[in-house]
Amino acid sequence: MNTSLGQTNPIAIAFFFLFVIITLGITYWAAKKTKTAKEFYAAGRNITAGQNGLALAGDYMSAASFLGIAGMVALSGFDGLIYAIGFLVGWPIVMFLVAEPLRNLGKYTFADVVAYRLRQGPVRTAAAVSAVTVVTIYLIPQMVGSGTLIKMLLGLPYEAAIVIVGVLMIAYVLFGGMLSTTWVQIIKAGLLLAGSTLLSVLVLAKYGFSFDQVFGAAVEKVNELAKGTAEAGTGFKMLQPGKLLAKPIDTISLSLALMFGTAGLPHILMRFYTVPDTKAARNSVNYGTAWIGYFYILTFIMGFGAASLVGKDIITSIDKKGNMAAPLLAEALGGPIFLGFIAAVAFATILAVVSGLTLSGASAFSHDLYASVFKRGKSTEKDEMRVAKISTVVFGLIAIFLGIAFKEQNVAYMVGLAFAVAASANFPAILMSITWKKFSTAGAVAAIWTGLILSVGLIFLGPTVWGEVLGHFTTTMVNGVATKVPVGIFPLSNPALISIPASFLAGILVSLVAPDAVAQEKFDEKKVRLYMGVGAES
Fold first, then answer.
1. How far apart, in Å, are the Cα atoms of 221 and each of 77, 126, 301, 344?
2. pTM reported for the whole predicted model
3. pLDDT tens-digit readout, 12-28
């Protein structure tokens, strides 16, 4: 197969400009409706459950999912399913443990819930630092991915692509706030689902709509490419676990991060404030889970389709990590026109996700740090809005700087890091603040800082960063061939197995050692608001 990937694609450019024109028109419309803090942070709480479900799906179906999982399945087969399932199974936790309390207890950020009956200053400071850390870590791979993708598909210089994404992202959030960001997400989710569905149907049509034939063709293709090498005849391993994650303990740790990380991602949690009540919050999770589940089934079909119709040799010649598997599959099935459409969809995916991340980061700074900590709740709505907009510009500029600074770096591991930090620092504090009467201010601060520092520190010392990024390798025999394998001071690639229990333990022990009588007195009042919605923000 000959590919035009890497050359300027006029069709992709045309789709790109069409998407930008439409979304800027939406931003202009949203700007006229966004005057107050409630409209800026929460779209006036006028988003319906169906709309919010699609926007949640859009927030969650990032480029890491569309490009990353399809590529992972194309290169590693069955193990790619672990990521797809891990991303999906986090949603029941969000629905049963987080969605309703957030809508009833909070206002704009998850720190509203954690700090509800605790002392505001220390809890909001820790929660805001954690939120900004997660958002920043999540932004880097999105920006680097956008620069690489646009450079490859539109023929623009990398730095120009980063600046374009940054400027558009700032414009969406600065002028249209949550309303503009929500509709950009909805359009992007619709495009992504339509494009992925068409790709999957075309793959299945090639094999008589038989999954057995799709899997069999992928195995045959791997065997064909491996003839005469040490991996000859190992194509069947595409259908077995262990190719990507050889150690079960690594699989367990990664699964914990993906499962609980969803319930701690600031840009996802913020969406529950955009709906009018708890019923809409729960229903939006149902809609979102259905769309996300459907999408991850498609990534599996696209991955095996790319393995059989494109081949590992071509996929890795374009990108060693396999991130271009889906665009290459589109080109193999529909030529340059379909490639151009899928490229524009991938661009829209990145642009929408970075907009949501920027809004949540700006909210953590303006609402939690400025209004609640620095001004002790005495700032005016006008001042808070002004700081939120300044924060948006600052976050956008930081994202542009980081995108350029990390150029040509392998930053795919940062998505896993963002989930690990969210699962370790945010989720334990949210859950204990909702369910445990004796959870104290000191316990909340200890839980957040323990999860944050431990997760970041252990990933730095693990095989992904310490080994792959910093160049520490050992040599081992794989299929009879001497192979360099990255090693870390900490043995696991994802620290969630250690950092999540440590965060819970720190929160429990410190709460017992340093009890908070005022917080315990407010627990019953909090339960009434939590379960009955009495006094919830409207």
1. 12, 51, 15, 29
2. 0.87
3. 788 888 888 888 898 88
